[in-house]
Every structure is written in C-alpha cells, then in structure tokens.
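Let's study my pick:
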Amino acid sequence: MELKKNCKYALLVPTSMGIRITPVNGQPVHSSDTYKMQATSAETNVASISSYLGLPVKVLTTFVKGSPIAQFIKSNLKARHMDYEGPEVEQGTPWGFRHQINIADSGFGSRGPRVFNDRAGEVGRTLNVKDFDLERIFGEEGVQVVHLSGLIGALSPETSEFCLEIARAAKKHGTKISFDLNHRASFWKGREKELRENFTEIASVSDVLIGNEEDFQLCFGIEGPEAGGEGIKAKIDGFKGLIKRVKETFPNASVFATTLREVVSVNEHLWGAIMLEGENWHVIEPRTINVLDRIGGGDGFVGGMLYGVLRGWEPEKWPQFGWATGAMAATFLTDYAQPADEEMVWSIWKGNARVKR
C-alpha cells in the first residue's frame, strides 16, 4: 500500500474519550467497593500501538471545559505520546455535558465479564466538523492513515457528518482510510436508513475495511457466517465468503480483515484472524491465548495491522503483528496494549514467553 510522504502524522483518529471504571481483583461490579479508573476509547486503543512504538499520532476529540475528568484524559493522552486537538464545551447545568463512563468488570473463569455503558450527556456527541480545520490537518500537516470507527460514525447526526467530512478530506488529500464498522444496535435504532447511507459512502472510499460477521450484515445487509464464535476454526471458509462479498460491494478497498475469537473460558480464548490483501489471503488459524482482560483485544489487532502498513512491511506481517498486539492487549488491565518495542510483540507471535534479561 503506497502511503503519502512528508506527513506530520502517521495516524489520526477521531474519538469520544471517556473513562472506564473497573473493580479490582477481577470482582464483579455489584459486589465491589474498590475500583480502578482509566481513560479509554476504542479509537485510541487502536492508535496506542503506533504511538507507543514511536509513530506520530493525533487525536481529534472534544472535552468538557474545566472538568477534572477532561484533565485526567488529557494527561493520559500525553502519557501515550499522542497529540490531541478539539474544542472545550461548557458543562452547562449539572445535567449538562460530561465524558462517557464505561463500567466493566474483567470476569474470571466461568463468570463472564459484564459491561455497563453510561453515555448520558456524552460530550463526544457534539463532535462537529465546524470545530476543525480539515484543510490544515490533511492538506498542510498531512496524515498517512486516518482510522474511522462506526462507534463515532453513529454516535449522533453531528458525528456522522463529521466522519463523512473527514473521509472526504482524507480522500482529497491522498490519505489512506481505515474503517472499522463497529456496529452498535442501540446507536442505529431509528436511524437505520441514514446511517446505512453514511456508512456506505465512507466504506466506498475506504482502503481498509474491518468488521465481524454481524457488522457487515447489520450495516450493509451482506450475508455472513452465523455469529457466535463456537467452532470458529470450521467457519473460516464462511468468513472468506463474507469477505469476498464485501470486496464485490466495495471494490475501492484493497485490504479486508476480521478477527476470530472462541471463548473457552474468561481467561482462555482461541484467537485468530483473516485478512485479504489484493487477491492474497492471510489466515491465522485460532491459537490459544491467556486473557487477563479481554476489552480492547480487537482494537489491538487493528492497531497492530495498521502499524505494519505504516511501517511499509510485507503484507504477510500485518495480520501477524496485529494478532500479537491483540493478544498483548488481553494481558493488560488497560483497554490498550503498551508495547515496549517491536521485539516484545514478535515474541508473542512466536510463542516465546521466556524471561528476557
């Protein structure tokens, strides 16, 4: 994949930042009284792979003015070596704007994790194209890859238009577009026609398309294998058929990818991936990984795959590195992996968990 040269940023992500509150020691929410708070968003989970490994990353978002949570998030983004840009919105009344809250335990053994999203008053819903100079960002500063997510694309009518305009500006200035569908039924309710049209436009100009069997079916009506994850290895041919149909629908894209996950227990998963690059299939059959906290594993895969693209590696290495960064994310209590270097990631791919002195 030929990337634009002389860019200030390797990767750019628009996102709605929030916090995750997690009980300590793997306990469930309803019986806990001690929690850990972290800054989080799916899109920055993706971008963290590149930022920790030294590539310049920019985040487009919005903050609640004067909020200590906003300051907490800004400090976290700086710690992750990310630049950020975006307006500060007045909270208004006590019932006004705030950053989203994700309350989620990690589960343990046979007790699956539970996630409770509290997004009332979410400031990210106000993300609006008028607050950003896209000509400066894409034309003057320059971006090699922009990663868009269906979570932001469907958050509100304003964010939908924002993502459309980002895709148009990226296309105009030669920036490659990555689009992870991330379908959420609650976001789409009552807006199905509008969002299908918006997502179709974004997907039609995207260079990389990512999604699972449900994402492609629910967003575009493209038939895929039955969702659920059990016996996933036997379904690989079904996933290939799905990706072929997606490619026929969106021929502009040159890379299509999906992850494969079968949950044996909370702490043991079978983890694999499929990527079609041009006419070349790259299949990673599911292998056993150990899981400390599963949230962010899929984002970690996308982040690692895009890192390989940005580094100009041979395509075969893209899903391998993504598989390993996804597996790595599952070993962190944060929603994002924090690789120290590429060697740490490749050791996971090779199955080498020996101590390094």
Summary: The first strand starts at residue 9 and ends at 14. Residues 162 and 263 are 36 Å apart (CA to CA). The chain has a mean pLDDT of 95. Residues 157-172 form the longest helix (16 residues).
